[in-house]
């Protein structure tokens, strides 16, 4: 099945680097794609990008997705030339063995390897040990002197992976949250002469505490906030149905809660009503743990009503994050339909 959307742009978004606080490369792509679709665009001192389409009323809406991906910062280069790192975002160190990485230096990118010793050379304690990010060593294939000349403390590291179509899914690194950035960009292209003013926000530093969205919650005075992020799809062997959270291929997910937010019931009802009117597949998300930019706007936006759309994704925070093409399309369709039909008289007051 061939997706109806621009897979080349999605590939560029997911493969471009941008760890928390250093979203420069991905920010350039977002600005390039968003600027032709909006009336004005700005970047704040944290690096958030906001593109605005002016509406015919005083009502303002923000839709947001974060630009940053989980990664690392160099903390030390050993005398033998191995690089040690500090985590930027939530990593399970078990997934890091035998991965290829990119070390971003002032003089250019370097490829490195997180090696894994042959299991038959390890003793029982080593085999049973739970790895930590602090235990990671990146092999640059360079001697110690050269490595220390090329790599400095504070350089950034991202995992290296291409984005591919696998069956009916898109898989790669940084679908969290670039696939939702993609959805916002695609929705912006469809919006023409809205009644309400719409701010399309690409936020920073979500992976280290939804910091960019919190800042925008102060800076933007909106009547409605909708955040987009990926969510857990544990619909794989080893999980009971009650622990799946969402299912790939069942549609976009309307979030009711996670550990950071309980979304506005009237916003949820509106999302459901539009989905049903437009024949867009959707599912309900009740996420036991984790948080998104939604909480930033709810807590710091002056009691703004919030809602959230999520794209079900398997294998989160790995280089094989996977989302179903139908769910991506459903998310774009629902977001665009909601924005196109939002009216000034719509009330979400409880």
TrEMBL record:
One of its GO terms (biological process) is proteolysis. CDD domains: M42_Frv. Zn(2+) 1 binds at residues 66, 176, 229. Zn(2+) 2 binds at residues 176, 207, 317. The active site is at residue 206. Its cofactor is a divalent metal cation. InterPro entries: Peptidase_M42, Peptidase_M42_aminopept, Peptidase_M42_dom2. Signal peptide: none annotated. Keywords: Aminopeptidase, Hydrolase, Metal-binding, Protease. GO terms for molecular function: aminopeptidase activity; metal ion binding. Binds 2 divalent metal cations per subunit. Belongs to the peptidase M42 family. This is M20/M25/M40 family metallo-hydrolase.
């Amino acid at each position: 099945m061939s997706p109806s959307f621009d897979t080349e742009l999605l590939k560029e978004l997911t493969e471009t680097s941008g760890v928390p606080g250093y979203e420069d490369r991905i920010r350039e792509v977002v600005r390039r794609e968003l600027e032709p679709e909006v009336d004005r665009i700005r970047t704040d001192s944290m690096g958030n990008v906001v593109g605005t389409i002016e509406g015919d009323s005083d009502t303002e809406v923000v839709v947001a997705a974060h630009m940053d991906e989980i990664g690392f910062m160099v903390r030390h280069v050993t005398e033998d030339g191995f690089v040690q790192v500090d985590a930027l975002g939530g990593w399970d160190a078990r997934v890091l063995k035998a991965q290829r990485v990119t070390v971003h230096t002032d003089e250019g990118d370097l490829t490195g390897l997180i090696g894994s010793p042959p299991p038959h050379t390890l003793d029982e304690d080593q085999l049973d040990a739970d790895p930590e990010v602090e235990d990671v060593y990146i092999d640059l294939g360079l001697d110690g002197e050269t490595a220390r000349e090329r790599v400095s403390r504070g350089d950034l590291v991202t995992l290296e992976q291409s984005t591919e179509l696998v069956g009916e899914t898109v898989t790669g690194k940084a679908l969290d949250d670039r696939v939702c950035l993609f959805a916002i960009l695609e929705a912006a292209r469809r919006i023409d002469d809205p009644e309400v003013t719409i701010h399309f926000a690409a936020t920073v530093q979500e992976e280290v505490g939804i910091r960019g969205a919190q800042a925008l919650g102060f800076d933007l005075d909106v009547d409605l906030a909708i955040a987009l992020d990926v969510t857990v799809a544990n619909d794989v062997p080893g999980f009971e149905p009650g622990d799946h959270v969402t299912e790939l291929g069942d549609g976009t997910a309307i979030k009711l809660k996670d550990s950071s937010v309980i979304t506005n019931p009237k916003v949820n009802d509106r999302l459901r009503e539009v989905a049903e009117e437009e024949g867009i597949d959707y599912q309900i998300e009740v996420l036991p743990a984790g948080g998104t930019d939604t909480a930033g706007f709810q807590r710091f936006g002056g009691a703004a009503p919030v809602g959230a759309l999520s794209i079900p994704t398997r294998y989160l925070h790995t280089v094989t994050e996977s989302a179903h093409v139908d769910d991506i399309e459903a998310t774009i369709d629902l977001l665009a339909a909601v924005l196109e039909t939002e009216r000034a008289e719509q009330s979400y007051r409880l």
